[in-house]
Amino acid sequence: MEISEIKVDGYERVARCRDQASGLHALIAVHDTTLGPALGGMRMLPYVSEDEALFDVLRLAKGMTYKSAVGETGLGGGKSVILGEPSKVKSRALFEAMGRFVESFGGQYITAEDMNIGIPDLEIVKTRTRWVTGLSRESGSSGNPSPYTARGCFLGVQAVAEDVWGSKDVRGKRVLIQGVGAVGGRLAVLLKEAGAAVTICDINEARVKELSAAHGFAVVADEKHLEVACDIYSPCARGATLNGETIPKLQCKAIGGAANNQLLAPEHGDQLRQRGIQYAPDYVINAGGIINVGVEMLPGGYREEEALRRIDRIPHNLKKVFEISRRDKISTQLAADRLAIERIQAAKASKVAR
Ligand code: NAD
To answer: What percent of the chain has pLDDT over 70?
Structure first.
């Protein structure tokens, strides 16, 4: 196995691993550990080149730094990528080698599930390093993050409601949810229980049918969902759905949902601001999962009550973001990045002072 360093400005450590025996070709990026060890998922994709993989891992690692800083997880930001087509390259030897690569960071990088990587893969990684999180509750780990992400999104939607209408009470508010999978489905139930009028859409018709039969949600076809007027729009399916084509069509006052990377580009945050639509930045409102995982790293290990206590701070973090957005007259997305940078700089300054 050969591990080589890649020098990248602004990153604490970036390394490449090539292992002939298993065929592993992977990269790990540690962006910033000022606030704690760098936690971020491991993903596997058939990247066309190492440059493409490097671009992805750097972007994602930095994103994790910001997400953790705003979510107050006590963690820094990192990420790992394995180059390859999952159906062709996955093997026990490959994940054992990946485990040794993670171990070579000595705890500076901590891994978790991400795209095309499942619990069985991470169980193999775990045989070579202890720096693996998000495994089953039975094994002492934090388990499935989705209910925690949904809980955080629910509290976040309440915080957006408070910002826009002066009360976090969502009774009677019309909420439109796109994507009712693990997170969106649970969020829909929480909102309905709190008195909101929930409309759902999803490309999985069976899932929509099952949920609406069980909970009485209104349903709209996915391709027509932007024609529905609502108070709060909650994207919980996939990224880049807030873009130049969709933003002019939106008929809502606020947006708060779980999907990652909802804005196609930063300028779309400005477009939302110009339209007077209050946007809860994705990585602030959907941090419940990472906050839950982060609790594994505390002395004494995972405790659900501690995770819930920390997730309860998501509304506070959103309020801060909204304040910065108003203070600096910038999009809420940019305001979230600014809050992250302010927190990291404050921690750096207090380390120097000590
Ligand atoms: P999921 O796969 O369980 O659910 C996604 C749902 O969206 C599915 O029901 C799917 O059919 C639907 N969908 C996909 N494409 C669609 C489209 N074009 N139109 C309408 N519906 C579509 O995923 P999840 O775990 O619920 O995550 C949802 C989103 O939240 C993802 O973007 C994910 O990256 C993000 N997220 C999830 C977590 C978590 O803890 N699971 C944490 C942070 C962010």
So the answer is: 100
